[in-house]
Amino acid sequence: MTVKSMIPMPRTRTIGVAVVAALVLLSGASLAFAATDAGTTTQDNETENETATVTFENQTSNGTAVTVNNTTLPEGGFAVIHAAAPVDGDENETVTNLSEEYETGAVLGNSTYLDPGENENVTVELNESLNESQVLIAMAHQDTNDNETYEFPEADDPYTSDDEPVTDDAMITLEDEMNETSE
């Protein structure tokens, strides 16, 4: 049996084994390189894709404050509540249905300064109490002058995505109106 292991391998078989071994080593190295490259790309995409977001859900309110459910502000800033103004109507009319056509109206209130990153359950005190249930719009604003004080329109422009302000809308139902309908 020892003699059998001492028999020299034919030259072509030795070259074939060497080629296969080299291919295995090279494919392993290229897979490791591809995995490293893909990881870097994903990390870069996460950084590039960090954009402002705002989530504002339908809710019941006492009319003096509303809650922005979630907002992501890459550089910090403010959650700002706007009235929903009818597109072809009087600026002082209130929009009372999410299916109506409307645009961003007057500022009704803003949060205190929010740190960069994700902020949840942000309470926004309104400048004046709501007198009826209506659609409101939450908008993410930057702190462009870095003073942590909301000063729009002089500063603190909205965050944008595709050249449009980052917003979400919600139907705000007043508690008093809820009580009237349940009686």
Task: Describe the fold and architecture.
This is DUF7282 domain-containing protein. Residues 52-173 form the DUF7282 domain. It is a single chain. The chain has 183 residues and is α+β, with helices and mostly antiparallel strands. The chain folds into 2 domains: 2-48; 53-182, Immunoglobulin-like (Sandwich), CATH 2.60.40. Helices cover 27% and strands 35% of the residues. It has helices at residues 2-5, 11-48, 175-182; strands spanning 53-55, 59-61, 65-73, 77-86, 102-110, 117-125, 134-142, 160-161, 164-165, 167-174. A 5-stranded mixed sheet has the order 2-10-7-4-5. Strands 1-3-6 form a 3-stranded antiparallel sheet, with no helix packed on it. It has a two-stranded antiparallel sheet with strand order 8-9. A hairpin with a 2-residue loop joins strand 8 and strand 9. It is globular. 22% of the residues are buried. The model is unreliable at 1-9 and 11-49 (pLDDT under 50).
